[in-house]
Design a protein that fits this description.
There is one protein chain. This protein has 308 residues and is mainly alpha-helical. It folds into three domains: 85 residues, no CATH class; 90 residues, no CATH class; 103 residues, no CATH class. It contains 14 helices and six strands. The termini are far apart. Pfam families: RVT_1. InterPro entries: RT_dom.
Length: 308
Amino acid sequence: WSTEVEVEWGVPQGSVLGPLLFLLYINDLPLFVKSNTILYADDTTFINIGKDITNLDILANQTLKTASDWFCTNGFLLNEAKTKNILFDLKANSSSLTSNIVTSIKFLGVHIDNHLTWNPHIDYLSVRLSRVVYLLKRLNDVVPQNYIKTAYFSYFQSIFRYGLILFGNCPRIQELLILQKKVIRNLTNSGTRDHCKPLFIDLQIQTIVNLYIYDVVIYICKNPNYLNFKYTFHDYNTRKKNNTKIDFYRLSKTLNSHIVVSLKVYNFFESQINSFSFKMFKQRLYHWLLRHPLYNLDELFKTNTVNF
């Protein structure tokens, strides 16, 4: 048995009320820091936005100083080894900054780089998934296929699906699709040159692109604040009046962002979304995607008809 000790400050770990008490303990931090603040359990993120890189550097240092003072006053210990600064800009040079700038960070399990290329996260996923490919191949020789499918969903699909809505449209997503094809061929004992789309259908497994399509459509349906329908901008009927309006953007980085791409995919399924309840639409969309394995978004947009 552990020795009973009176808790004089902080929150006791392992208690039922621990998470709630911790949130109450740290909840007023954003009131003391001028920067935008994201709190997730004991992970705290400060966001500063500016056009002048020098002023932004000063603001970042001030934010860290204010936060450190608050932590000290409230009995927290700031983990300096895990405190990182990252500058998001398409062309800025961070060599002149006084802050300790890194080129990539791990934020809530997702690796984010300063140019938002998602390359570090794809590298990370490729290593993890390659190990699972080998594991599933070894299991295929000793256990039935239905057990392998269970292991696939638990140890392969669950890894790449986390945060997929963010990086699912990056060019290197094809590298993960190749690894997925290897698993599918191993599951069915197929050759390395065998076409995989029929195998996806037979196994009732979604491609990584299909899962991305499903996730972004459901995300927009659950977050209608992103929707600006075309009929709100004019008072006459048009064929696509119920489509959501997508603003014009100059930068390709913005055009390929998850919000813009999500709206494009949402518009593609606009008639189906309006024809069914949300619950029914989710089911029909998922089963339609099972029947139509896709390797990229162009295949979706080139589809002439969608029959749910």
